[in-house]
Amino acid sequence: MTITPHTELIRRLADDFTALQDAVLADMNGVCAPEIAAALQDEALVGPVTVVLAHADVLTRGAVRQAELSSQPPDRLRRLRAHARRVRRARSQAEARYKKERALQVGRRPRPADPLELRVARAAFRQAYDESLRQELRGRGLPDGTPQAPEGDLARWAWERETGARQLPARVRELCDCDDEAFVSALLLDAREEENPHLQHEAVVERWARHTRTALAWGRYAIGQAEREAAACAPAVRRAPLEALDDAYQDAAVLAARCREAQLRATALHDRMQAALAAGPGGQLVGECRAAALARFAEAQPEAWHRVREVTTRHRAECPEQTEGCPHCHRALAAVLADSLPDGTDEDDDAGRPEEDVDVTYGDRYALLTDLPDSAVVAVADAAAGDDSALCGYGWAAEDGTTGRGDCLASSSGEAEVIGICAAALSLLDHHEDAPVVVLCDSVQAVKAVDAALTAGDAEAARRVCVFPESRELMHRLVRHRHRVQVRWLKGHVGHELNEAADALARFAFRRVTGRIPSGAVRREEARILRSLGREPGPLSAAA
């Protein structure tokens, strides 16, 4: 770390979470001491500042929500909302600064040592090159299949080779060996009860970073449960539910901070791995393996190798970074080669391409229904969700004039949409004996998840999207009727009548469960929405 007049202060702020958060918020409000404000600009605190602001962001938004539910005076509510906006803005600025500093650090690293031809071949013909590398590693005596994905695991291989295998502490081994559900439970205990220092171990930190999203979802689940209970009570008797809501927001704030810390620690580990790969003896061996793998690739794929040589030779004649080895040019050259691949060739196996570009079945404006029998019942489902809480609303509208709405707890908008699809389908299955049911939805993620479960006849096929027990139970119920149910994608917000009706009902359900509609006005508001859609109230789904 650079020696500055504030070195001791910087070290103290880095080690004291509360002191750093107080300093950051004081700086945000313009009341920070000059020496502390100067210390906060040090690059050593760039990452930690994002951690404390992640924590503060959740707490300030929680304070706003609790004030809304406790009928605070308008002036106080405006002040809380203004403070929350300032914290959110400060968090965005801190994240932007971190990304900028991170880019500068990456730019200061040694330029890639691999030849341009190797990097282009690896990027443009990944499967063929990886197979050549596997063969080379096996030829050098490495166990068959290790590493499983050579280019992705070579940095870890070199790191472990140089740091040496060592016996892991028992608590670390437990975290390594437990299943994902138990690991997420450990993350929740870390946030709610006592910080677990073993999560920082090199053998665990990547898994920690990978599962923080799920842990955060369970934090929002607790907020949703408390918020639902508070909103269901009369304002005069909300004290206990609001205390539970405050506890849930406190836990979620710690989860948010620990999530950011996990990401920073995983990034630091990757940096150390890359440094070992570039400078250590293991890195030299990796370089030799890559070069030999390129020779194998050239022998096995002569036409592809010829095209790689041709495009790189032509590029070098004009590249201003030629003397530095064209460090960033391989991606663009690989894209040129990919664009010129013959039809039907898929060397990269869709790697790195956006989901919507890979699956062309989701490019039409409306779902295609011409292949359905006349007896089919068609409905559109939609969902509405907030930011902090797992509470969501869903709604659906069918061609037969029926509608439904309800609320749920969902880890993501995709899971909320899955619940809406299931609720619509199960209600229509009950009311239309033997008729096929088709549910349309504007969420690609939800459609794919439900379709995968129906096709496989197994609700577990949607497990990645269906995190919470509510959606899993609905999916298990729906799979029993898989031969009568289809789900298809429909582009949203393009004026489709059923889609607009489902969207309005979903937003109404969300506002109702979060207490944004007075309990006495619920029926009037629902009737007004249905009249505006030209519909009369129909049988409402009670599936979730």
From TrEMBL:
Residues 373-511 form the RNase H type-1 domain. Pfam families: RNase_H. It comes from the Bacteria. InterPro entries: RNaseH-like_sf, RNaseH_domain, RNaseH_sf. This is RNase H family protein. It comes from Streptomyces althioticus subsp. attaecolombicae.
